[in-house]
Specification:
Elements: H1 3-30, E1 40-46, E2 61-67, E3 120-125, E4 141-149, E5 158-172, E6 189-194, H2 196-208, E7 212-216, E8 229-230, H3 231-235, H4 246-255, H5 265-276, E9 294-301, E10 304-311, E11 326-327
Antiparallel strand pairs: 1-2, 3-6, 4-5, 4-7, 5-6, 5-8, 9-10, 10-11
């Protein structure tokens, strides 16, 4: 092999080795763990899923690495201070434990640990209709609507009203967590958190009827204070109006409401005058007979002339002789 052939082969071999080295270095640099160059800190986390009301044990805890600049506020650097603390909400595997997720120190485990100070846990009986078809789960937010009977002018005296709003469900039946398979049977009770006053309202509503739970969005925390709906409002009748009887209703439907008709100014003035002045008593005069009118007639009998007066209007059939005629005064 001559020199002209060896020189290109050597140059190609050297270039190939250099390229391979550079590629290996670049691949090694790309595989470097970013966490190795990041400052980490250890915080307490849970090894598995923890149900609400559970008491933490040492076997439930471990330490995990978190970026120092992204550590949540309220975490714990060790597991020792978390032993025998009660969990108030559901925790999942690998979740960092925050102080806001735990009951105060010394609190007992169970459902009572999930009730904040000043609140009460109230259980309502539900079925598929008033329990949102069994779709409720721990953590949901609900309103409570009650239909009651009131004493007013509404037909049947029925009213539907939202009595309490934005209550959190802490248990459906005896289930206080959403982890695990769904129960096959529909729960017959729901436990919610309420104030003492709301608890009294719910108990009274349960005595009067069957409260209906209404599901709302968890992020919706507005309380609107429902005004209630009556039978009259469904019919389009205002609450301050009495519903007319069948006869009056038919009259108004055909002829309209007289109070809404345009009034005549002259008639209104006359009516007003009649109402303000006392009417005078009409004078009734006794009927008088009209004065009879007579006609003078001369009667000649046996050569003798006599003047008599005859009435102009006929008074009836005239019978009798000349003695019925009235002689004119001063004549024979």
């Amino acid at each position: 092999m001559n020199m002209k052939t060896m020189i290109p082969l050597v140059i190609a071999l050297v270039l190939g080795v250099v390229a391979a080295k550079m590629g290996k270095d670049m691949m090694s640099k790309g595989k470097t763990d970013p966490a190795a160059s990041m400052k980490l800190t250890k915080v307490a986390i849970v090894k598995g899923d923890i149900a609400p009301g559970s008491v933490l044990q040492e076997t439930d805890l471990t330490l995990g690495n978190f970026p120092a600049e992204n550590v949540p506020q309220g975490t714990f650097p060790t597991t020792a201070e978390l032993v025998n603390r009660v969990v108030t909400t559901q925790l999942v595997k690998g979740q960092a434990i925050l102080d806001t997720l735990l009951a105060p120190r010394g609190a007992s485990g169970g459902a009572q640990a999930m009730v904040p100070p000043g609140w009460r846990a109230v259980t309502l009986e539900v079925n598929e209709v008033n329990g949102v078809a069994g779709l409720l789960a721990p953590g949901c937010r609900v309103d409570v609507v009650q239909t009651i009977r009131v004493k007013d002018n509404d037909a049947d005296g029925m009213m539907a009203k939202t009595i309490v709003e934005n209550l959190r469900v802490i248990a459906v039946g005896r289930r206080m967590t959403t982890v695990g398979p769904e129960p096959e049977q529909l729960a017959r009770s729901v436990t919610i958190l309420a104030t003492q006053e709301q608890s009294e309202v719910l108990d009274l509503a349960s005595r009067l009827g069957t409260p209906r739970l209404v599901l709302r969005n968890t992020l919706d925390d507005k309380t609107l204070g429902g005004k209630g709906v009556t039978v009259a409002s469904l019919r389009g009748v205002r609450k301050d109006e009495q519903e007319p009887s069948s006869v009056a209703g038919a009259f108004l439907k055909i002829f309209g409401d007289p109070s809404t008709r345009p009034s005549n100014t002259r008639t209104d003035k006359t009516d007003k005058a009649d109402k303000t002045t006392k009417p005078e008593t009409a004078k009734v005069e006794a009927p008088t007979s009209p004065e009879p009118q007579y006609r003078q007639v001369e009667i000649i009998r046996a050569g003798a002339s006599t003047n008599v007066r005859l009435p102009l209007a006929p008074l009836g059939p005239m019978t009798g002789g000349a003695e019925k005629l009235e002689p004119v005064p001063g004549t024979r």
